[in-house]
User: Which sequence fits this backbone?
């Protein structure tokens, strides 16, 4: 019995060993597949958007605040996406104002101050935070954070820029924490020891030694956070109010209580209503190109920064 | 400056006391940031379960949605998510694991490899809604799959490639070079070494990646919006067999994540507890899946011998 099993295993091993070349080819093709997929994403999105390139008014697209894709009878549709670009920009900025201090603080605590056991627990909990899907954040924004904002701030609508930014911030924080923590840990211990020998306290080490030394990694962490905020769809769609809106006064802090409309939410919300091949459909793919370009640039640059750190340490 | 007590020459001076105070404040602020992240979220999730408790029962899970989800249960979305995960996993796991093997074991150190690594990073950063657009252009239209379970699974598969590639690459990189060298010295070929030494020593790490993929695939909503998810489907659910296999690969399907979006926003007169129930089941699913991956990793670390 066992010898029979053994011979089957031996036969299997022989077959697998004999297939060195085919397996090598398969592995190489799979290895290159990521390039293929990135190329395919660019190709198909450009392909669907391309027919609208010649007659889309690009000046209007970027600099006019007139998004009327389905106009009233007898009017021309207009695709001025500035309000939507502002929406994505505003959500990104406000959410980073919330996420960066929290994420950086938590990363410093985890990497420098926490006792080992508490450190493990915090890391596991933050990992769970990262695993919560965006639809859940959207739901929390809609049914819990919305009424909460209404009640606490006494405003009429709780589904607004502030709500969406809090949700996006909570989604971006785990990423910021883990990249920042990596960056802080990559600072050699000899730096810490030298500062300790000079009589620095732990906090002085953090902000006089670690922050400057880990500068690039912290920059990469915030960039990846921005990438997450720009690309987030469901939470933004459900919690932002999805209303095209540019405030008149950019220095009025109450603008966080306005409703906004983001690029991602525009695609998600309007795509099902379009006819395949119509101008509206193609313009939504143009928005896809904008998002794709932003995210690829952010990711490649921050990746280069992170790689640079690894090489140094 | 500060009066040094004659009884204790080592007592802290004013400068040290000030320093210590700053230190304590800073430490507590950092701890506060960590707590502020975690506690409210735990409270909110507890609240979701509390609000969902009236409907949570086996019957809620096993019953099909009726009246657009206002009554009944969530069986059809749940089984839809299950099939979406299985099909996408079958598509992405072989490609992702082999790609990870290529990058760590075979790839020469040249510009092409750097391009591959950069492609993996970019793929991880592409917004999910852009993946949805890609799915429409490539799978639904060009490959003629239509809006279907297969098209949605393909879209999810492309989106989650980086998860598996990264996990595999890191698991393989953690196997010490000496293991490989010992094997080569015995006359083994490269593939024999990978198959008999490298893969068995990194299987838990690869499995962690697979579990993370499952968690992503089960929770994502945006990529399946236009590629196959449906607010309601007409399928036969008379027998247990029908209930277990309600969808074909070319059918539109219901998924838990999209179902939550629909019941939360799209349908009027939806009872509150049905919304909370769907959210609670989805969260429970994600937490269970992730607990597996964390347990696996802790176990792996505890028995690591090198």
Assistant:
């Amino acid at each position: 019995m066992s010898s029979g099993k053994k011979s089957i295993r031996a036969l299997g091993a022989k077959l697998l060993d004999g297939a060195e070349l085919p397996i090598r080819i398969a592995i190489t093709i799979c290895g290159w597949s990521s390039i293929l997929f990135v190329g395919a994403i660019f190709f198909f999105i450009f392909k669907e958007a391309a027919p609208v390139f010649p007659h889309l008014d690009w000046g209007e697209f970027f600099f006019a605040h007139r998004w009327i894709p389905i106009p009233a009878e007898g009017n021309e549709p207009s695709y001025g996406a500035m309000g939507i670009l502002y929406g994505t920009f505003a959500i990104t900025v406000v959410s980073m104002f919330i996420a960066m201090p929290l994420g950086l603080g938590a990363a410093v605590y985890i990497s420098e101050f926490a006792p080992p056991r508490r450190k493990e627990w915090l890391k596991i909990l933050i990992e769970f935070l990262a695993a919560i899907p965006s639809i859940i954040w959207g739901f929390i924004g809609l049914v819990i954070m919305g009424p909460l904002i209404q009640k606490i701030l006494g405003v009429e609508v709780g589904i607004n820029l502030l709500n969406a930014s809090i949700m996006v911030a909570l989604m971006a924080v785990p990423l910021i924490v883990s990249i920042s923590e990596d960056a802080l840990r990559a600072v050699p211990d000899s730096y810490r020891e030298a500062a300790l020998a000079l009589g620095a306290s732990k906090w002085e080490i953090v902000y006089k030694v670690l922050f400057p030394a880990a500068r690039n990694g912290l920059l990469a962490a915030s960039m990846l956070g921005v990438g997450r905020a720009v690309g987030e769809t469901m939470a933004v769609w459900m919690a932002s109010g999805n209303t095209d809106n540019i405030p008149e006064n950019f220095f009025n802090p109450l603008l966080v209580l306005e409703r906004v409309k983001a690029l991602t939410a525009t695609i998600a919300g309007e795509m099902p209503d379009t006819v395949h091949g119509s101008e509206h459909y193609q313009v939504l793919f143009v928005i896809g190109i904008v998002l794709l370009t932003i995210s690829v640039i952010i990711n490649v640059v921050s990746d280069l920064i992170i790689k640079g750190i690894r090489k140094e340490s | 400056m500060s009066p040094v007590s004659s009884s204790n020459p080592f007592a802290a001076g004013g400068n040290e006391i000030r320093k210590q105070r700053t230190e304590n404040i800073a430490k507590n602020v950092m701890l506060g940031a960590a707590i502020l992240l975690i506690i409210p979220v735990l409270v909110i999730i507890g609240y979701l379960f509390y609000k969902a408790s009236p409907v949570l029962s086996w019957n809620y899970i096993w019953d099909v949605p009726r009246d657009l989800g206002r009554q009944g249960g969530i069986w059809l979305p749940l089984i839809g998510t299950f099939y979406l995960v299985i099909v996408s996993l079958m598509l992405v796991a072989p490609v992702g694991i082999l790609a990870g093997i290529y990058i760590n074991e075979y790839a020469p150190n040249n510009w092409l490899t750097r391009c591959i690594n950069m492609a993996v990073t970019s793929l991880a950063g592409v917004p999910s809604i852009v993946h949805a657009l890609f799915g429409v252009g490539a799978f639904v239209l060009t490959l003629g799959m239509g809006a279907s379970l297969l098209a949605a699974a393909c879209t999810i598969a492309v989106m989650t490639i980086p998860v598996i590639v990264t996990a595999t690459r890191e698991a393989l990189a953690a196997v010490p070079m000496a293991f490989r060298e010992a094997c080569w010295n015995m006359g083994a070929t490269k593939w024999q070494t990978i198959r008999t030494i490298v893969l068995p020593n990194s299987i838990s790490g690869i499995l962690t990646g697979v579990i993370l993929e499952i968690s992503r695939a089960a929770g994502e909503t945006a990529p399946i919006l236009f590629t196959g998810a449906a607010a309601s489907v007409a399928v036969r659910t008379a027998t247990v067999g029908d209930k277990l296999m309600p969808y074909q690969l070319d059918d539109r399907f219901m998924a838990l994540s999209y179902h939550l979006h629909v019941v939360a926003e799209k349908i009027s007169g939806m009872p509150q507890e049905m919304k909370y129930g769907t959210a609670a089941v989805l969260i429970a699913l994600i937490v269970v899946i992730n607990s597996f991956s964390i347990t696996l990793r802790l176990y792996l670390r505890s028995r690591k011998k090198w």
